[in-house]
Amino acid sequence: MLSLLALPLATTVALAQVEALSPDQNADFRQRLPAAIESATQPALQAYLRRLKADTATDRAIANGVRVADDLAGCSLDADTALVHYAVPLLSPLMRVPDAYPSDGELGDPVGVVLARDQYENGSFVVFPFKDMDRVHLKLSALRADDGSVFPAENLDLRVVKVWYQNGNAWLSYFADPGLKLVPELLLHDENLIRVDVERQANYARIRTKQGTREVWISAPQPIDVGFDAYQDGFADAKTLQPVRLAAGEFKQFVLTVHATNDTKPELYRGSVQVAATGEKAYSIPVAVRVLDFQLPLPKANYDVDKDFVVTAYSVWPTLALDHKAFLPTLKNMRAHNLLHVGPKVAYDTPAAEAKKKVELMRAAGFLTKPIMNAGGLAWVSHDFDGLTLMKRMAQKYHDFYLKTFGHTDVIVNQGDEQGAAWLIAQRHVWRVLHQLGLKSGLATNTNNSFPTSAYTIDWRPLAIPPGDAATGNKWAQIGSGHTGFYANQHNGSENPAFVRRQHGILGYLANLDMVDNYQFAYGPWNDREWKLYKPMVLAYPISDGLVDTLAWEGFRAGIDDIRYATKLRQLADASIASGDLDRVEAGRKVRQWFAMIDGHTVDLNQMRMEMIEKISELTR
After folding, report:
1. DSSP secondary structure of 201-232
2. What is the pTM of this model?
3. pLDDT of residue 415
4. Which of 20, 336, 492, 546 has the fewest CB atoms found within 10 Å of its own CB?
């Protein structure tokens, strides 16, 4: 399969989130250290290993040093190198803290990226230095194909993964934990935007203004937290990767993000990341980017390749003035991460100028404007004659407003939340009023109450179910109209990108859900201890001019891209079956069979992606 791509790629393997070595393993690594010192061919590595033997080194430091030496023993790297690198999958369940050996990495391999047109994709690598180095520069060379084509430099971005203190549940859950631990999360151009004090277990935000530079403590315990204005002038990341500090014996991760547009030429592009520090020989990390010869479609439902798959989230509309410099960059960042729909919070009483500006911002960012998600809510009214009369007047105003503002009434109007059976039965009359005017109804709910009482009349329905609940997904899919998603199992908040990818991607898709609308997209706080019961449900962090991405946010994008690849493959399979040509018919049916055998809970998502690419290639030959 990989021969199709002519490009090595690391795949996700089953790993514990934090490695724990047994006493016997630690003793074995200590026993092997002298032999590793003698066999090391890199002087800098040999010196580093000798320091481990002479100092009171930790078990983990010795284990990592011996394992790196073992890896180098079978690798022909430059003897003068002061560091090595491992190509690693970005969306791994492994927490890449500084002392985490990359068990899922490949020493010296190219940083590989495979993507279709109209897609963002990531490659990643960790470096392991043998000595301390300040102000290390990483520069990406031009990426060129054999025919001389150059990949556009403006569509390439290199960032460092910042490890900082988050609450104790950060990697696992959305529930709060008052304790702190080091967690890899932020993707930064300037790692010094956040300073981490290991002795105090504290995070500090850097603010730069004309008056000078200052720091703000942003990890205070909840009872004494005073809040932090992330939008204040001076709190911003750099636009390109700045020099980083490398500490001997500590792994540091970097992320290459590649954007192939509809116009990008399908080729295999090669280049390198040059790592340079004063007084050290430059180290070259090979990079290979394969742009595939097809464009990804917008996601469609698993059970109906003609039905749109809705991608949104609760609370995505920025809580900023519309002319704030961070507003449009925030929306563009969301759209680049595969959010398709965003509720602009415009209602019949929204001033015309404000409504027009919101529409312009949505369209400038590339959001779909049909349907309009989370448009607004109707007031709570009684279900008697007077209440329904008032409701009809309000609904008419919604109808007229949206028809004038957007040119259609495909609008989700919400009323209620997680209601009981009696309320749902009475509410059917209210939703009928909406439907008579061409509007749509919305309710966050659960299946036990809502399906037997009112499933046929609810159009937007986030359910309190796990995304892999196929029995529920299949049941709601039978309704045909409307869109069904999940929330609360889990809410956003886990920072494990492999989990976020699966949760918001193939797991719900294969269960015949046709919407992602999880709770929620929180604009901060930067302090992971500020909330009480839950941890902050932050997918990307606000700054004065936009957003700072995270590993989880990249996982979200990849999950939706998995659905887009699946959509492409299903569309091709259906076309093959409809062709009437026996060879093509059987090829299409084989694809359907392949999908039927996938277990969304356990499938290796990287392997699945590669297999989909191979099958797409086969069906387009």
Report:
1. TEEEEEEEETTEEEEEE----GGG-----TTS
2. 0.95
3. 79
4. 20
